[in-house]
Design brief:
By secondary structure, the protein is mainly β. The chain has 1 helix and 8 strands; from the N terminus they run αββββββββ. It has a domain of 78 residues: Jelly Rolls (Sandwich). Helices cover 10% and strands 46% of the residues. The mean pLDDT is 91.
Length: 125
């Protein structure tokens, strides 16, 4: 993975999600099953744009803080807390801290992942 050459923190950050998604699509066309592009890393807040190629996903894991998943494109399957649901573009899902979850996409998807890390787990400023 390449180093980030842009600001991930600041008083005001603005993004053109269409452009960010285009960059991820280009990287996915190189044969990878998943690309994650961190947009914001400020204190306890992490905001990451994730692209999944058809058949791609994230294995089961948990997060130190609550997360949201906003499906921007395609469709994904989320298994969380022992339940599985399928979510399409426009869906917004919230998962509590330490809940085991996994994500898969049969046809490919793009989603915005937000993580709020407890301050004790966040990097110092």
């Amino acid at each position: 993975m390449s180093a980030v050459h842009r600001s991930l923190a600041g008083k005001v950050l603005a993004f053109e999600l269409g452009e960010e998604m285009h960059l991820i699509r280009e990287q996915l066309s190189g044969g990878r099953d998943r690309i994650a592009r961190t947009l914001v890393k400020e204190g306890s807040l992490r905001l990451t744009l994730v692209g999944l190629a058809p058949g791609g996903g994230l294995d089961e894991h948990d997060a130190p803080g609550p997360i949201t998943i906003h499906v921007l494109e395609g469709e994904l399957e989320l298994t969380a807390g022992g339940e599985t649901g399928t979510y399409a573009m426009g869906a917004l899902i919230a998962v509590d801290r330490r809940v085991r979850h996994a994500v898969r996409s049969q046809r490919g998807a793009m989603f915005l992942l937000t993580l709020s890390t407890p301050q004790s787990d966040a990097e110092p400023r």
